[in-house]
Amino acid sequence: MENEKYIGYGVDELLEDQEFVIKVNNTRTNEEWDQFLQSNISAKENIIRARKIIQLFKTYEGKLSEDRKFNLWKNISIYNKTNSWKITLPHINPFLKIAASILIVIALGSTVYWGLNRNGETYEFSESTGMDQNSENPFLRLSNGSKINLTDKNSEIVVLKNQDAILVNKDSVIANTPVKGQDINPVALNEVSVPFGKKTTLILADGTKVWLNAGSRFAFPQSFIGKNREVFLEGEAYFEVTKNKNQPFIVSTNNIDVEVLGTKFNLSAYQTDNFCETVLLEGAVRVQDNGKLFNAKLELKPNQKATFYSDNKELVRSEAPDANMQISWINGWYQFSNQNLITVLDKLERYYNIRFVHDPTLESKAFPISGKLDLKGSINEVMAVLSKVAKINYQITDNEIIIKKQD
Amino acid sequence: MKDDQYIWEEFKNGEEYAISYIYNQNIDFLFFYGKRITKDEDFILDVIQDLFYELIRTKKNLGKTDNIRLYLLKSFRRKLIRELQRKQKQTGSNEEIEIQPDIVFSVEEDIISTEENSKRLEIIRQGMKELNQKQREVLYYKFTLGFDYVQISEIMQVTNDSARQLVSRAITSLKKYFAENNFILMLIFKKLVKK
Questions:
Q1: Category of A338 on φ-ψ map: left (φ > 0), alpha (ψ -120 to 50) or beta
Q2: Does residue B102 form part of some domain?
């Protein structure tokens, strides 16, 4: 038999007892309360009186509206990002402080194989960085051949310019010197591979910052030698390019090249999409079809986009007033305005590495939706929100989510 | 409690998820705490933003804590008071009034507002009026949030003894008031307990 804890306690003593106060506040059901009274039967009268006083101070706790919660969080999150970069940068690359200009480009990839000849140059990702659907974590394959697993969900890679080394997640420095006995290959690039459901950030040798989205591969040199600063992308990335007029920055995807004329940009080129989209937020870029027979060039101004359709090889320029929505993914939000439900589902498939199964008629039945999803939550949380907005029913199974339109 | 300690360290180490977790776990609480002190919601949100900015800026130098909510509440209360004072100066009042959080209890939220109930409510409200601002605040920490004296003295920046004294005086005056109105109050409490 348990001893009565509050035997002989007066009202004042009960009120003084922190444990008692917490007990009163945390008791939710009558059954639980009756049980507590039974186990302290001799102090019952005083316990009831003390509880009444405590209950006078019970307050109604509401919830702040989701909208205001989100807006405030957006500010805090951005502040947190800029602040953590500031902490990193001065120690690693003082040059970055002048990296003022920002260019954003989004280029969605096509079905053409990555290693296609482009203007005589070729880049083929090595076998080992192949998009393995099952690979758990992002990884880095250095130009000297070594392979490093990046275990964090959001890992960070910094190229240490004059040290032939790479800093991973602020704590491990990895030497990138040629293995003894092997010839130095001056054009060998480092490659990062980010599986679905993960993200990675990089700082390149020139101080350019790169956010790599889920399901992407990216190749970059240890240092930028030569006429251009050239990097290769498959998937989606947001770039903040350090200005250097004498050495243009070029991002190549399998269909288009984006030449940066001193700005920040976000580029996304997924092979599974049948179009490439380049959206510019600030500054100027030149988008170029890199197929041999076609050589269309487009210059973009802020809030414009260039779309390349791989079916008819057409490159089209149009206005993109919601350009900055396109990069909300770097903060873990996915924001969309008047989007087709299928487009939204495609993005979620990549981000969470899941598959949606739906009736082919869903696309025509679904109306355009707008909103924002917190991608830091679980897929269950995201689906709960999305199903309300898009008026769909869903069922989560082992590795698929079945979508049905609500009647 | 151990979780709080862990999350706090993760935050200090710059883990992004930690700040998001801390924000989401505490934003409603901080906002409604602010609402008990001032009605100006935009003002409250500004102060909360400022609070988080400061945390982020100074994270490398922050101390340890095993109670994040308490930690946030301490600086939030300090900031609120400071900003309220600044606001008051701007609006031109010359009097140097010491601003104290005036915790307003919303008993009415818990009771269905019928004619009959509103009479009883009036008696409870009256009982609350027997308390001064400081007493209401201290009882909020003690009874609503269930803090101990060490925590209360940290928040209110008073000594442990003063915190005890504040509480005991507040309880005495409450009890006295209730004894005088015992009969009517018994009825109310029955209603409250039933809910």
A1: left
A2: no
- CA neighbor of B128 nearest in space, from B107, B98, B112, B152: B107
For residue B96, is it within any domain? no
A53/B171 Cβ within 8 A: yes
Domain closes at, from B59, B90, B121? B90
pLDDT at residue A280, as a whole number: 86
For residue B22, what are the domain limits? 2-90
Q: How far apart are the first and last CA of chain A?
A: 59
Task: Tell me: do B79 and B120 sit in the same domain.
Answer: no
Average model confidence (pLDDT) for chain A? 74
Q: Which pair of tokens denotes residue B61?
A: 């130098």
Question: How distant is the Cα of B89 from the closest Cα of chain A, in angstroms?
Answer: 27
The reply to whether A59 touches chain B by the CB within 8 Å rule is: yes
Q: Cβ contact (<8 Å) for B27 and A69?
A: yes
pLDDT for the residue B40? 86
> CA B187 to CA A248: how far, in whole Å?
81
| Shortest alpha-carbon distance between residue A202 and chain B (Å) | 16
Per the model's pLDDT, the better-predicted residue between A81 and A174 turns out to be A81
- Residue A349 pLDDT > 50, yes or no? yes
Same domain, B29 and B77: yes
Does residue B44 register a pLDDT over 90?
yes
A22 close to B (CB below 8 A) = yes
- Interface check A113 vs B, CB under 8 A: no
Q: Is A154 on the interface with B (CB under 8 A)?
A: yes
Q: How far is A265 from chain B (nearest CA, A)?
A: 23
Count of domains for chain B: 2
- Residues in chain A with CB shorter than 8 Å from the CB of B124 are 56
pLDDT at B103: 58
What backbone torsions phi and psi does residue A53 show, to the nearest 5 degrees? -65, -45
pLDDT tens digit sequence for A33-53: 888 999 888 888 889 888 877
Work out the widest C-alpha separation in chain A, in whole angstroms: 95
